[in-house]
Amino acid sequence: MRKGEDPSFTLHRTLILALQDHGVEISQLLEEADISLQAMEDFTYRIPYEQFERLFHDTIEKTGNPAFALHMGAVIRPEAFGLFGYTALSCSTYGECLQTMVRYKKLIDFEIVHLSKQGSTHFVQFIPYNPLSSIVPLLVEANFAFFLCFGRWATHQSFSPLSAEFQYALPEHVSEYERIFQCSLSFNQPHNILSFSEEVWQMPLVSNNLLLKPLVFQQADQLLAQIDPGGRISDQVTHWLLSTDQIPLFTLEAVAEKLNMSPRSLQRHLTEEGVLFRDLVSDARKRRALNYLKLTKLTVAEIAFLLGFSQVSSFHRSFKRWTGMTVGEWRAS
């Protein structure tokens, strides 16, 4: 995705499949979203973010089911995503499958999923592309339910995460969270995170096709190169800045180390892309601040600390520069 372009999605197709399962008439829904039924047959057909938001909202309204996103994610199978899905099905273990989904996620959308490990615990973090979007909780529900329920289906094992954390408030349909995730649930948290044990991470996929793997990965790499040619270094920097908990390490040297390059090399790449490192840091802090303010009940002091500000007053000044408003004015708007 080039700088200044809007993200696009193929996830709309899974919405339509789920609507059909709910017995909802889709022709009017597609017409209102300005999507042709013929286009739905094309796995590569993509729609803009705003159109996707409208389609998701209309879907919840048509079904009358506030837990629709959870239910959709729980029943989606990878083949609904075309090539993206077949790369996942060709993996040997559940952990490798999640790593492959992260690698090729831009084939279906531009939301960020970050994987990390601490000790023997693996973490899957969902970072919304647009933290101010009203469908962020729906996207988290759909993605987390898909990651988990697909894993259960593909491994033929009824495992559960160690825990599940969500940035937003406790939803009315929390009983569905309990039924699907079957683990400790926490809301109003700094991040959206599923955690898994090493045993679960290494579970073998029953449906893996190792003979097919080289072919589908080659095709996926070719398609990914068309969607996101060049693999911009600035995008990699932004990904790390949005996913790390090491806010005090928002330095050129620290990021360069994480990307396995020298600070001089990183600076050269950013210069070639016409991007300033300090602007990437500022934008990441802004996006995370807005995310915290919209989706959590964290205090301003807590948010300032999480973003690496030494004083709350410094955060207030930065927020006013980012938005043109004070925190109080923004929350009231």
How many strands, what sense, and barrel or not for the largest sheet?
5 strands, mixed
What is the helix tally? 17
Shape: globular
Oligomer class: single chain
Rg over alpha carbons: 20 Å
Q: Into which percent range does the helicity of residues fall?
A: 40-55%
Class from secondary-structure proportions: alpha+beta
Low-confidence runs of at least 5 consecutive residues: 1-8
How many distinct beta strands? 7
Q: Characteristics of this structure?
A:
333 residues, H-NOX domain, 2 domains, five-stranded mixed beta sheet, two-stranded antiparallel ribbon, globular, disordered N terminus
Describe the protein in words.
With 333 residues, the protein is an alpha+beta fold. The protein folds into two domains: 8-219, Alpha-Beta Complex (H-NOX domain), CATH 3.90.1520; 233-332, Orthogonal Bundle (Arc Repressor Mutant, subunit A), CATH 1.10.10.60. Helices cover 53% and strands 9% of the residues. The chain contains 17 helices and seven strands. The strands form two sheets. Strands 3-4-7-5-6 form a five-stranded mixed sheet, with helices on both faces. A two-stranded antiparallel ribbon has the order 1-2. A hairpin with a 2-residue loop joins β3 and β4. The protein is globular. The two termini are 31 Å apart.
